[in-house]
Each structure stands twice: as structure tokens, then as C-alpha cells.
């Protein structure tokens, strides 16, 4: 019944060594996993382990802490886990237990989580600082804050620097995640027809995830018509009328690794002239941003690329009546009027977290890091003309149109590699796919 780990012991040990060699040897390292969250009364949400825990040792069950302490001349890793307990296992399933964890996981030893306070307390009194991820496990937070002679330090910046560049095996898993999500979007587009419910499209996507032994990496967004203009819409409970576009932002997780795809398509299979104008502009901006996903580019390059294409396109379509410079605004702030219709960043890092570590959102107010091979980013420009908006004048011609196109891109020495390329996005391909038999 033991789970198979997604990486070899060598890969986990390599990560642990690279991490621990950056930590002073008079420290204690504590990496807690996420608590169970409750949905209502005593029923919980599906459990998702903490990404740092998954990264360092692949442990995916709740109530666990990975500890590392330095002993004589090397680091020793200890995994605290739930002990075997037949009465509890009758309800929630067999546990790996301490013996299983010590023999089948990439750690030196395992202890019962029941002994966490005592064992960590003893180690804390013998070390100068505790490298603890705070805010995840309140017992550890209290233990560390009450240890008088021990400072606390944050290990996440070291780990984030490691997580931001993916290994070959991580890229394989991300490709699998991208393939499953691409196929799910294709299946959903095939179901397109006037009058379909947003929830019905959601069910096609999520059925494909489940059938592929995967799960959502975030709540699926399925917004028809004006709902496509609400960035975090996810009630998904409206019918989509003939002539409306639907925006579907949905991705899945494989061994913890996320995909994150958005496609926008006409529910009746035919873009109107107005929809086509906006769609073509967003696609042009997206392709321009993918083009600059190059090793050596600054993080902000993608946002710069999308911003100038979108702003110029809106001037050409008569949506904005000003110069390109005025439309974009300050060249670091991006605060010109084009932002009335493109309100979010151009992308983010992608990995074990859908909004992964290593950088902010594209559009943050600095140039950010230099892109390197092995990094995976999303590229997701959009334009939104919600007819419900009262803060800004919405051009009649485009009222009710929302378009976003999002792909997942691996930076390589040879240039950008679009992991989600099997999900169609040209107007011709999408029109041919809507409502077609699979
Ligand atoms: N689906 C979340 C995002 O695109 O960032
Ligand atoms: Mn998305
Ligand atoms: Mn995204």
C-alpha cells in the first residue's frame, strides 16, 4: 500500500544536500507539512501536503515534520510522522508509520509525531538558530519562539532558489500535467454548444483530470459572456448564450506539479467580428511574450512585450485615443489607461505551487530575475470589457467580451518550449474544434 515516490532517492538526497550545505551547522532545520483544512464541521478538504515537504522528501500525508540537525560531521534527517494506529486507520486508511517511513523514504530516521515537542525541544536547546517555515504548524511556531537562546531564521529563500529551476524529472512531470490539462480543454471545447451550462464544461474538464488520476491545481474558472471579465470567477453556475465567448482557466496536478491553462472560445463555434478582433490582439500579445521567454531575458520582458502589443492594438481598434507611451504609462509602473482592460500580470512561475516560488507576478515594479533554462512560467495576457463596469467607459462594440490565453512555457537553451502546445489556440483550430466529435 506504500505510495511510489515520484523521484529517486538520489534526487531527494541531492536536494537535501544542496539545501543543508547552505545552513550553518549550529542550526536546527524544521520543515512542517500543511494542516488538514475543514470544509464543514468534521469533514475535510482533500489533503494537499506542503510543497517544501514534497520537494525535500516526497512525504504526502498530514501531521508530519522534516527535521535536520548536525551531528559530529554530517547532517541527520528525521521525519516525524503519524504512528501506526489501528483505530484511526479503520477510518482514514493504513498509515506508513515510523518503520515504513524510515525504510521507504529518503531520510535517516523517523519518529512519531507524538514525540515532536520533546525531541525538537531537546535539539532546540543545543542550537543557535532554528530554520523554520513559520505559520504552518503552530506547535513548532510556539516552540521556536519560546526557545530563549535560539534565533529563528527562514529557510524558504534558499529552497525557493533551488525550486525555481526544474530538473529533467520535474520537467517530465510538468509535461504530463500539461498534457492532461491540454486534453481536458480539448474535450471541453468539443462539448461547446449554445445554452451549455458553465458547470457542464467544468465537469468535462474535471472528469478528465480524475480519469487521468490527477486533480485540479486550483478552482476551475468557467465564465461565459460577462463572467469571463471577472478574473477570479468560479461560481460556474450560469448558462452560456448563443453568440457568447466562454473563458476556461483550468489546470491539474501530477505528483504535486501544476499546469495552468486558459482558453477562450465561442460557445457556438464562430467568433463574431468583435470577438475576433480582441482574440487576435490577445493572441498576438501572447505570442510576442512567449518569443521573449529566453534564457538571459529579464523577468519583466514578457510583461513589456504583452503591454506594448495590447496597448498599440487598443489604439488601432479605437479603444484608446492617445499615444503608445501615454497608453502604457510609466515604463516601470505600467499605469496607463491600457490597464483599465488588462488588469493582471502577464504570468508567474509554475511548479509545485501554481503560483510558484522564485518571483512575483509579471508586472511587479522591478525588472526581476534573469530567466534561466529549467524555469517554467505561464504567459497569460488578457483583455476584459465587462459591460457591468462603472469605473471606466466600456466601448459598446466590445462590451461583454473577456479573453485570456494562457500557456505554460519552459525556458531552454534553445528558446521557449510551450509545454501546453497540444491545446489549440488559433482561431481556425478553435472554430473547427467547437462541437466536433472526438
Ligand atoms: N489560474 C490562476 C492563474 O492563471 O494565475
Ligand atoms: Mn490560469
Ligand atoms: Mn496562471
Molecular structure report:
This protein is of the alpha+beta class and 438 residues long. The chain has 2 domains: 9-163, Creatinase/prolidase N-terminal domain (Creatine Amidinohydrolase, Chain A, domain 1); 165-433, Creatinase/methionine aminopeptidase superfamily (Creatine Amidinohydrolase, Alpha-Beta Complex), CATH 3.90.230.10. 33% of the residues lie in helices and 19% in strands. It has 13 helices and 19 strands. β12 and β13 form a beta hairpin. The longest helix has 23 residues, at 168-190. One manganese (II) ion (MN) is lined by residues 249, 260, 262, 406.
Cα gyration radius (Å): 24 Å
Strand order within the widest sheet? Answer: 6-5-4-1-7-8
Task: List the ligand species.
Answer: glycine, manganese (II) ion
Low-confidence stretches: none
How many domains?
A: 2
- Which fold name corresponds to the CATH topology of the largest domain? Creatine Amidinohydrolase
Largest sheet descriptor? 6 strands, mixed
What structural class do you assign from the helix and strand content? Answer: alpha+beta
Number of helices: 13
Span of the ends, CA to CA? 36 Å
Per DSSP E runs of 2 or more residues, the count of β-strands stands at 19
- Average pLDDT, rounded to a whole number, is 96
Helix percent band? 25-40%
CATH architecture name of the largest domain: Alpha-Beta Complex
Task: Give the CATH superfamily of the largest domain.
Answer: Creatinase/methionine aminopeptidase superfamily
The CATH class of the largest domain is Alpha Beta
In one word, what is the shape? globular
Amino acid at each position: 500500500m506504500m505510495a511510489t515516490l515520484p523521484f529517486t532517492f538520489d534526487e531527494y538526497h541531492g536536494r537535501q544536500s544542496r539545501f543543508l550545505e547552505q545552513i550553518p551547522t549550529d542550526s536546527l532545520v524544521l520543515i512542517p507539512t500543511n494542516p488538514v483544512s475543514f470544509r464543514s464541521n468534521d469533514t475535510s478538504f482533500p489533503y494537499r501536503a506542503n510543497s517544501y515537504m514534497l520537494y525535500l522528501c516526497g512525504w504526502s500525508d498530514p501531521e508530519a515534520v522534516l527535521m535536520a540537525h548536525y551531528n559530529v560531521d554530517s547532517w541527520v534527517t528525521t521525519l516525524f510522522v503519524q504512528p501506526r494506529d489501528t483505530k484511526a486507520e479503520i477510518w482514514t486508511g493504513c498509515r506508513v508509520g515510523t518503520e515504513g517511513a524510515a525504510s521507504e523514504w529518503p531520510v535517516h530516521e523517523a519518529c512519531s509525531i507524538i514525540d515532536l515537542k520533546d525531541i525538537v525541544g531537546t535539539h532546540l536547546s543545543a542550537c543557535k538558530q532554528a530554520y523554520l517555515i513559520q505559520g504552518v504548524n503552530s506547535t513548532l511556531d510556539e516552540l521556536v519562539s519560546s526557545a530563549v537562546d535560539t534565533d529563528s531564521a527562514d529557510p524558504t529563500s534558499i529552497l525557493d532558489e533551488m525550486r525555481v529551476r526544474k530538473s529533467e524529472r520535474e520537467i517530465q512531470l510538468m509535461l504530463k500535467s500539461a498534457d492532461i490539462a491540454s486534453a481536458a480543454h480539448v474535450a471541453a471545447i468539443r462539448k461547446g454548444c449554445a445554452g451549455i451550462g458553465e458547470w457542464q464544461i467544468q465537469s468535462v474538464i474535471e472528469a478528465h483530470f480524475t480519469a487521468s488520476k490527477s486533480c485540479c491545481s486550483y478552482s476551475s474558472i468557467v465564465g461565459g459572456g460577462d463572467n469571463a471579465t471577472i478574473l477570479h470567477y468560479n461560481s460556474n453556475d450560469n448558462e452560456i448564450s448563443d453568440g457568447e465567448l466562454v473563458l476556461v482557466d483550468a489546470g491539474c496536478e501530477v505528483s504535486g506539479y501544476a499546469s495552468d491553462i486558459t482558453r477562450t472560445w465561442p460557445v457556438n463555434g464562430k467568433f463574431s467580428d468583435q470577438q475576433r478582433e480582441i482574440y487576435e490582439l490577445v493572441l498576438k500579445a501572447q505570442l510576442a511574450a512567449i518569443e521573449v521567454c529566453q534564457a538571459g531575458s529579464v523577468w519583466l520582458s514578457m510583461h513589456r512585450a504583452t503591454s506594448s502589443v495590447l496597448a498599440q492594438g487598443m489604439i488601432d481598434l479605437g479603444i484608446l485615443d492617445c499615444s503608445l507611451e501615454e497608453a502604457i504609462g510609466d515604463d516601470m509602473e505600467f499605469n496607463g489607461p491600457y490597464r483599465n482592460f488588462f488588469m493582471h500580470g502577464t504570468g508567474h512561475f509554475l511548479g509545485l505551487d501554481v503560483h510558484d516560488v522564485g518571483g512575483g507576478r509579471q508586472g511587479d515594479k522591478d525588472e526581476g530575475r534573469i530567466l534561466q533554462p529549467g524555469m517554467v512560467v505561464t504567459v497569460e495576457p488578457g483583455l476584459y470589457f465587462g459591460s457591468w463596469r462603472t469605473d471606466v467607459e466600456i466601448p459598446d462594440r466590445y462590451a461583454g467580451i473577456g479573453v485570456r490565453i494562457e500557456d505554460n512555457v519552459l525556458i531552454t537553451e534553445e528558446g521557449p518550449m510551450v509545454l501546453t502546445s497540444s491545446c489549440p489556440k488559433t482561431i481556425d483550430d478553435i472554430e473547427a474544434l467547437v462541437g466536433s466529435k472526438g
